[in-house]
Design a protein that fits this description.
Elements (H helix, E strand, L loop, with lengths): L1 H46 L2
Length: 49
């Protein structure tokens, strides 16, 4: 019974780490998308004198 608890504990930690990593990647992707949108909007504004 003890090894089973250890395994589930490791599984929970692994899932948490994966969620954190995926969350960070998702956040970076969102930030990059927002930055590119802002740059494109600024370019559109600067293109028209």
């Amino acid at each position: 019974g003890n090894s089973k608890n250890k395994l589930s504990f490791q599984f929970i930690i692994t899932v948490l780490i994966i969620i954190i990593l995926v969350g960070n990647i998702f956040k970076e992707v969102l930030n990059n998308m927002l930055i590119t949108v802002c740059i494109q909007e600024k370019r559109g504004v600067t293109d028209n004198p």
